[in-house]
User: What shape does this take?
Amino acid sequence: MAAVIEAPRTRVKARSSFEMYSWLFMRMSGLLLVVLVLGHLFIMNIAGGGVHRLGFAFVAGRWASPFWQVYDLAMLWLAQLHGTNGLRVIINDYAQRPASRFWLKMALYTATSLVMVLGTLVIFTFDPTML
Amino acid sequence: MWSWVAHRITGVLVFFFLFVHVLDTALVRVGPDAYNTVISSYKNPVMNLMEVGLVGAVLYHALNGLRVIAIDFTERGARVQRQMLWAVVAVWILVMVPSTYFMLARTVATLFGTS
Assistant: This one.
């Protein structure tokens, strides 16, 4: 009679793949952000006189083009999600009490949502003729 | 280990700046005067110096992030991680030297009157 092999410990529930996708998202968004953010920093801070030429008229000139609207929108969303996910990991690493972990993350998600909605609205409702 | 610590610190700093930066940019929706006033604070010498720090933090985070991707996704990555860290430091210095010059040239000229 063959030996009976005990079944391995069973999983209580199906494991979520969230952390794997979060890990993958950090690398994929990071790759895009290298191009978007370093391009943004070069244009705004280094090229053609840098920060000293920035102002309302400069923004109006750029957002007249759908290319820069989409560029800035992609940068806003990717950077917010990348940064929020990074902070989520940091909170999980250092905040020890369940209540502080929960409330720190709620504060983070609230702030992120507000800033993403505000930034998106600003890009698409910008009016260069306003006084 | 220190490259990981620096990655976390630069990441948190850049993320906090991003919040401030979206809020100051949102002032274009309030009006040209409000926006130009807040942008003028970015042109002051102390802020100008902090912008060099911001670019340095973003650049380190970007270069080390590419190193992390190379370690995770390539066959040889983990074995050459130390050499890649030196490459990160070398590229960082090579990019920061001219960038710092272009970012501060006007501020230095105004402050010390060489113009």
